[in-house]
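Troubleshooting log. The previous structure file for this entry was overwritten by mistake, so regenerating from the original sequence record. Sequence copied from the archived sheet and checked twice against the printout by T.R.
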Amino acid sequence: MLFDSPLREEHRAFAAQDAARRSDRAREARGAVVRRGALEVEYLPFGPADGDGAPTCEVPAQFAEVELEYAAIRSGAALVDCPQRGTLVMRGADRVDFLNRLVTQDIKRLADGGVARAFLINRKGRIDADLVVARLADALVVDTLAHDVAALHEALARMHFGEDVSFELRGATHARIAVHGPKAEAGLKALGLGAPGSAAPGFAAHGSAVPAPDAPAHAVPPDAWSALLGDARAEVWRSGELGAPGFELSVPMAQAASVWRSLVTFGARPAGWFATNTARLEAGTPYFRIDFGPTNLPHESGVLASRVSFTKGCYPGQEVVARMQNLGKPKQRLVGLRIEADLLPVADAQVFAAGEGSSLGDQVGVVTSSGIAPMLGAVPVAFAMVSSSAYAEGARVMVNAEGEQAPATVCALRFLEEASDGAA
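Regenerated output below.
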């Protein structure tokens, strides 16, 4: 498998231990032996298949009951294996200026310890990659889909004409994990992986944060930092994509299992795609190559404001983006849908304009993602790519769902008011 997780043994070990613990608790409560086998860890294919039709990447679907994993995101700490994510690290004196000339966001204005979202687009204005850029004192950590890292590197290398920039692809050397939830930061602090100056006593530390040079003691905690893991180094950056405090980690392969086990010991519960997908829908976080993709313009993505600067210098494709901003509106845009029936549409379900009475109007879009939102009272919600005739907030549409047509209202992508500004 091209992008396999190095943590599969840890997945199976947790599932077995978790089932045993719950069996013991049930036996103590009922006074009888309760036999309960471990749930088999289920995996879902992610991204394109290989030439033989086999998955190139698989993500854990669930480790135990989805409700427990979702609860960890909202009230505890959820540990997420992210083999579908990959990082490219850039070093050299010209790294910031070089990347800034090629992406849609103003990286030069990003302070050390800052994090920004950006698109890499082509000269036709279409999105080639959706990026997270973490600026450290000595490097830029660029995070994107694992399937896009090689193409991203090739695109940057084509534009490299002698600048002092080097590239490090981490697919074979580092694992990507994340921890989300109100107790996530405490878990990192307990392991010594918290932001500089935030170490917590009383727990076996596996690393220590590396402060930026000359950082004042009273400085605001950074959004990105490095942490030492023995002789190796990991990078950590904040993320709110699930609508809760979250942290993404790029960890050397040799230390990945140890970090995973330590976070589990702290109390973080591994969570799979079913739980995290629900949370990111509530938080209004669309995913590249799922909700929008390489055929889309930035204005169609639904996350234009968090990805594009209209005050920075030139970059490839800027003329298309500027023209759309100044002279027109996109033909379609990703929006949220609040379904007004107890019916759940699936991806690719057709969206129609609401006609007179119970009739359907013309097709105006398709659903890209959907789920039940527990924080909204278990109502169905969805993202959909909808044409300009119907993407205004408050517009009424009809959606194919479970063999029926369900009424829905167009709304903002974010369903939760408390979702962080960095969620998308």
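The CA atoms of residues 106 and 289 lie 24 Å apart. Archived copy saved in two places this time.
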